[in-house]
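Students often ask why we bother encoding 3D structure as a string. The short answer is that it lets us treat folding as translation between two languages. Here is a chain of 321 residues written in the first language.
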Amino acid sequence: MENNAFERIAFSYPGQGSQVTGMGKDAVQDSPLARRLYQDADEVLGFPLSRVCFEGDEEQLRDTAVTQPAVFLTSLVFTRLLAERGVRPDVVAGHSLGEYAALVTAGVLDWTDALRLVRVRGALMAAVNRRRPGSMAGVLGLPAERVEELCAQATRQGSGTVQVANYNSATQTVVSGDTEAVEALARSARQAGAQHVARLSVGAPFHSVFMADVEQEFAEHLGAVPFAAPRLPVVANTTAGYLESGTAAREALRRQLASPVRWTQTMELLVAAGVTAFVEVGPGRVLSNLSRASAPGAAALAVGTVRQLDKAVERLACAPV
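And here it is in the second language, the structure alphabet:
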């Protein structure tokens, strides 16, 4: 099929926290292409990442240094399987870790380079958490501006540092920082009328000032990898704007570590650009659920299993022109 059923298709790629036990296993059983990609990834990294994807328990999948390449690889596999069926994006974006898969799809990074970078990124983030443990929490039902105020209040009260890490939607914001400060923020958010506050299953205080400690070290790894100009539009986390060059993409990945993910603004940009179908490629349904909230008039599909792949291809092919 060709991309003519919808005016514009966006692929979105999930980040850490979307991992699920057994991710990719059905793809390997169904597709020689998927099987080869997992085998190649094991060789590139020098350890059995595929086994963690297929058999890893929740504890193993909480290890940031392993989870990040696992989620990235699963997203890559389903991107290739969609391409085999003739489904390709007009524009791409990735949430945090997902930005690496987006850049591979846009032709900016070779997938093996991206896999190695993601492995290093995860290890560096995990090291930060060992030196200064922290946590993250999602706040539902409050405007982002109110959450920002509560973060500033909790930080002033001396519980530590907490700040907004992800602007996910108009009423869903993720905070990151010292565990005590995150807990203080959670209490004040509930008192302020938040519908729900939940601790996230991640391995470090991502997208916070704590990650600034490893920016320079990671920049050296980024500098050793070639970045090409994007072959299709790709939206950056840090600015919610299009990346125009490989140099800009490299800088965006460096800044991303300690900067918030501007997903609300990313969705606004994509809707304004005429996207009518959002396809979340990779494990979980986090981004497809956010798409339904941010773009209720568009199709929102998740493709992280073979069954979902089949349904998405049928849906995209059969949509009215």
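Translate back mentally: The chain has a mean pLDDT of 94. Keep this in mind for the problem set.
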